[in-house]
């Protein structure tokens, strides 16, 4: 009688062990791939996820001597202070305006450049153009802003020399609030368009050449083949990169804005990231700056999720 009751129980235990081994078998079978990706996973856990516990200081009156856990809890007081501050709408307008301007101008340019380079048949000329357009990517932000200061100087800059040749008065571009967004976006396009076009060139390399041959037989021009073959073929790539760009529309590059910023153009150059820098680093208001940064991240997250869902419904192409 004992054997008849113990045997089914042991069989059940062995069955559970077998199922557990089957579950983990793919991981054990591909342990080299998991080992290869483990440094990346460790990086994100250590430097991206673990520090997120510090977000709670946005809801506390952080006191360094008491630490994060010992500081008193004040709820959403810092958020209310930011929403009612004099700078709130100016920061939102400048950040969103600069982000949309960068997206409207900077996003299509690499696509156009990739489509044009894909049509070039002279290999030497194509490599020359690629080298010229890729090179600015390797310049540091400090160097780029330094070049802008030299070229746009009202006294020594080559741009103002050309303006003077045609009878115009020198313009102090970097001190004029109305010029800030244009200078920021155009210099960013010049620096990044070549490098950003690489992924589109890679996508264009995968377009089936038989489609072009069939289109030529039907009498399609080069422009028609670009419009009806190349662009639809790389559209999934375009959509994915567009979603990613939307997700960072409020995360404008802090370093370049700070280097170009001065008291004269502060009206249009002051964005959320520079305000966080002034509040957190210069004024030592750590909790207040953390609240502003958290607000900015939440807006980016909402935009990313919203655009991803819209894209998923309209084109069936999305991040998840």
Brief descriptors of the model:
mainly alpha; 16 helices; 320 residues
Written description of the protein model:
The protein is mainly alpha-helical. 74% of the residues lie in helices and 0% in strands. It is built from 16 helices and no strands. It has helices at residues 2-29, 31-49, 67-70, 77-83, 88-106, 108-119, 123-134, 141-151, 158-165, 177-205, 209-217, 222-247, 254-260, 266-269, 272-282, 286-315. Helix 4 crosses helix 16 (286-315), helix 5 packs across helix 10 (177-205) and helix 15 (272-282) runs antiparallel to helix 16. The chain is flat. The N and C termini lie far apart (56 Å).
Distance between the termini: 56 Å
- The Cα radius of gyration reads 27 Å
Report the strand count: 0
Please state the structural category: mainly alpha
- What's the SSE pattern? HHHHHHHHHHHHHHHH
Low-confidence stretches: none
**Which term fits the overall shape?**
flat
Beta-strand percentage range? under 5%
Mean pLDDT: 88
**Sheet bearing the most strands, described?**
none
Q: Specify the number of helices.
A: 16
Instruction: List the quaternary state of the chains.
Output: single chain
Please give the share of residues in helix: over 70%
Secondary structure topology:
Elements: H1 2-29, H2 31-49, H3 67-70, H4 77-83, H5 88-106, H6 108-119, H7 123-134, H8 141-151, H9 158-165, H10 177-205, H11 209-217, H12 222-247, H13 254-260, H14 266-269, H15 272-282, H16 286-315
């Amino acid at each position: 009688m004992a054997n008849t009751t113990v045997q089914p129980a042991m069989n059940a235990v062995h069955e559970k062990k077998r199922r557990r081994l089957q579950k983990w078998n793919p991981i054990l079978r591909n342990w080299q791939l998991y080992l290869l990706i483990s440094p990346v996973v460790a990086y994100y856990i250590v430097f991206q996820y673990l520090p997120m516990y510090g977000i709670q200081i946005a809801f506390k009156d952080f006191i360094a001597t008491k630490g994060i856990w010992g500081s008193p809890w004040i709820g959403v007081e810092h958020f209310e202070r930011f929403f009612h501050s004099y700078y709130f709408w100016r920061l939102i307008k400048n950040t969103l305006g600069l982000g949309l301007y960068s997206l409207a101008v900077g996003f299509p340019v690499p696509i156009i450049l990739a489509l044009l380079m894909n049509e070039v048949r002279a290999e030497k000329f194509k490599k020359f153009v690629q080298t010229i357009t890729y090179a600015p990517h390797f310049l540091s932000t400090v160097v780029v802003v330094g070049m802008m200061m030299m070229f746009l100087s009202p006294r020594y800059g080559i741009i103002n020399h050309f303006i003077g040749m045609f009878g115009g008065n020198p313009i102090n571009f970097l001190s004029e609030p109305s010029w800030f967004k244009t200078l920021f976006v155009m210099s960013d396009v010049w620096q990044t368009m070549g490098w950003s076009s690489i992924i589109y060139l890679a996508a264009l390399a995968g377009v089936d050449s038989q489609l072009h041959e069939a289109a030529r037989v039907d009498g399609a021009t080069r422009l028609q083949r670009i419009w009806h073959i190349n662009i639809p073929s790389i559209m999934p790539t375009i959509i994915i990169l567009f979603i990613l760009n939307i997700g960072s529309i409020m995360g404008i590059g802090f370093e370049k804005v700070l280097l170009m910023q001065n008291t004269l153009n502060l009206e249009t150059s002051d964005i959320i990231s520079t305000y966080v820098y002034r509040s957190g680093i210069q004024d030592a208001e750590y909790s207040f700056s953390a609240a502003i940064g958290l607000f900015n991240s939440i807006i980016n997250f909402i935009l990313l999720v919203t655009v991803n869902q819209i894209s998923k419904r309209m084109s069936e192409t999305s991040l998840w």
